[in-house]
Amino acid sequence: MHSSGLWRPLRRRDYVISARPWRAALYLLTSVPLGAATLLTLVLLAVAGSALAVVLVGLPLLLVLALSGIPLASLERRRLRLVDSTPLADPHREPPGTGLAAWLRTRLQERSTWRELGYALLFATVLWPLEALAVGAMLLVCGGLMTTPAVMAAGGDGEAKVLKLWIADSYPEAFAVLAAGVLLLPVLAYPLGALAAGHAVLTRQLLSVPESGADSRLQELDRSRMRLVDAFEAERRRIERDLHDGAQQRLVALSMTLGLARLEGPAEPLGGLLAKAQGEADVALVEIRELIRGIHPQVLTDRGLPAAVEDIADRSPIPVDVRLDVPGRLLEAVESGVYFAISEALANVAKHSGATRASVRGGVAFGRLAVEVEDDGQGGARLAADGGEAGAADGGEAGAADGGAGGSTGTVGGARVGTGLQGVADRLSVLGGSLLLSSPPGGPTVFRLEVPCPPARSRT
Q1: Which entry of 203, 298, 325, 362 is 20 to 30 Å from 11 by CA?
Q2: What is the maximal distance between C-alpha atoms in the chain?
Q3: CA–CA gap between residue 75 and residue 278 (Å, rounded)
Q4: Tens digits of per-residue pLDDT, 202-241?
């Protein structure tokens, strides 16, 4: 939603009777304790970090202070949904490696981290006190007016002070004041809604990185790459259908024809040649079925990613435990990319790791699908020195299941093996995903992939 869209509901006639005033009030009310807690945290970190910096103990505290805007910004993006239905994307990028050092290095180099720190300072010192004042004034005025009859009854002297401005000395006057307070509630809902909208606009401006010309071009490049991925997927599906409905059916017909010819009992050597030809046709039929399954498995189309991974595990030569928690269906490009990445990883485990068991586990959290393939093999996998491999479980691959680029190399236990995960890594990078590898000598080897997973709007 653009910033103008946040103000548009205030101009609608049904604003007062909709849920928006209540959502705006809740948005402002929750700002107060959150802002007070943020202010206290920032002050404690700044004071303690500065006081202890001379003995170096305070340096980690100052580092935490610099990064304190990150958790607040994450919470604010969720709280923003109270008044803004359009999600605010997380601008942080994935670290290039695992571990705290890689994460800190990435975050401290990002402009978003410092913008979020600025927002935290503004929120802690300016925004929440203003909102507390506005909400408190509304509660004080409306509450003071509407509680006048109760105050009069509790006092027992037949009169009550109204907002300390005048005295109501009769119940008709007290109930008239109560009615005025009730009528004032929808009137004050508009300024509170405007204040909440203003806070939301400021939050959206500060917590999303403005697009420069280069950023816009990069985003357009990403969109064009996504269109190419979709076109590639459509072409794969077309080839799969053509092979399934065309070449496979012709081979079935050929095998049946050869079988009928053998039933006629032809003399040798013609009978032997027909038997051999039928055998070759059957072998070709098995191979083309495997090829069709490799291009795009039907189970992935019909039942989704978890069922397709279960199918890979069932066909694996070593036992594989699968625990995938994927709610609903994902975009076809995401499902296909993750499926082939897992297929590659399990192929590596079976061929190069010496493992006796493997596991596939993962799920969706915060809009990203994370999957880990782990085995109990010998470990020692590492990326090739030429940098040609983006990440390979156990560092080896006999061929990319998605037809990705081969030719890169990796090592397992010091031995060079062929790799084919570069194509998978490139494909996931187009989707905004990443591949990571952890493989200490002696194992275990963990192949981890992460990819954004917006839900599929439609599937055909």
Answers
A1: 203
A2: 125
A3: 66
A4: 888 888 866 544 555 555 556 656 666 666 566 666 666 6
